[in-house]
Model the fold of this input.
Amino acid sequence: MAKKKPTDPQERKRIIRNRLIDGGVRNLKEFGYPGVNADNITTDMVYKQFFISILEQNLGHGFDSEINELIAECKKGDPESDERRD
Done:
């Protein structure tokens, strides 16, 4: 029996977000970062830079809204981020 697709847009966004994070964690572990996990991939300075790069490479292939939200989350609070420049 096939899984039923979520009809709630918020649930769909949450599922996509979790899959993007899980994929990022898997990729970073393959690149030799065994300490990366779903909790620190968007906050650790090194991990999030690699994760942003991975996310940016996937723009234009679907789920751009969710990808852009994760990129913004990663950049939040970074002094180098465009959001914080005067």
About this structure: The mean pLDDT is 89. The two ends are 54 Å apart (CA to CA). The CA atoms of residues 75 and 82 lie 8 Å apart. The longest helix spans residues 9-30.
